[in-house]
Design goal:
alpha+beta; 3-stranded antiparallel sheet; two-stranded antiparallel sheet
């Protein structure tokens, strides 16, 4: 058996001879800061978009987030967008963008990747603000 330390939060992994990983996890307590306005902003934005992702219409509220169109912009519904976690991460990572005429565009390089088509379905889709 080989042992290797992952070094992330005390996670250590032992790999058996047949390649099956056995993980031993340690836990730490952390404090996370959250902007005071974030919860009411999320509730208002999701209500405006009828509890669904604007581009893909996913309706599982636990997978939905309120994105700020302008980072740390005003916390009003008109500066927010209801997105599923995948599209919110893609938006923040600049994989997709929203033009002023509400057309969604994707970076060209993402379309050539194996998972790129997951985001392709939102390209050139008009978002109607509720």
């Amino acid at each position: 058996m080989r042992a290797s330390g992952a070094g992330l939060g005390g996670l250590q992994e032992a790999v058996t001879g047949d390649g099956v990983a056995q993980a031993r996890r340690s836990y730490i307590t952390t404090t996370v800061g959250q902007r005071i306005h974030q919860r009411p902003f999320r509730e208002r934005v999701l209500r405006a978009y009828r509890q669904q992702c604007a581009p893909c219409t996913l309706r599982h509220e636990e997978l939905l987030e309120a994105a700020h169109i302008i980072p740390d912009g005003e916390s009003v519904v008109t500066s927010g967008l209801a997105l599923c976690k995948l599209r919110h991460a893609a938006f923040d990572g600049r994989f997709l963008a929203i033009r002023p005429d509400y057309v969604i565009e994707l970076r060209r390089d993402i379309l050539g990747e194996g998972d790129g088509p997951m985001l392709f379905m939102v390209a050139r889709v008009c978002i109607r603000h509720a």
